[in-house]
Write a structure and sequence with these properties.
Layout lengths: L5 E4 L4 E7 L2 E8 L2 E9 L2 H13 L4 E5 L4 E6 L10
Amino acid sequence: MVTVMVFLSHQEVSKVQVKTPWGIEEAVRYLGKLFLPTNEYAGLPEAIAACRRELDAGLLAIVVAEQNVVRLWCLVPRELTGKEV
């Protein structure tokens, strides 16, 4: 199995709002997939370590660098999302 870690800037993703079982949440769309934020980090090394843990657990995650924070976003299964709002 090949594991790839993806680092993106906020310009490379589209922010959307989606309806989930937990309510309306901010998500990002990247390559046709939806991701929800799981954690924020002050620096890239911490975000990389967290992303590595997610990937090692078999989950798909992306790291997005924003203006003052780096966020880890995890893939949302299609079954858990409704329509974008």
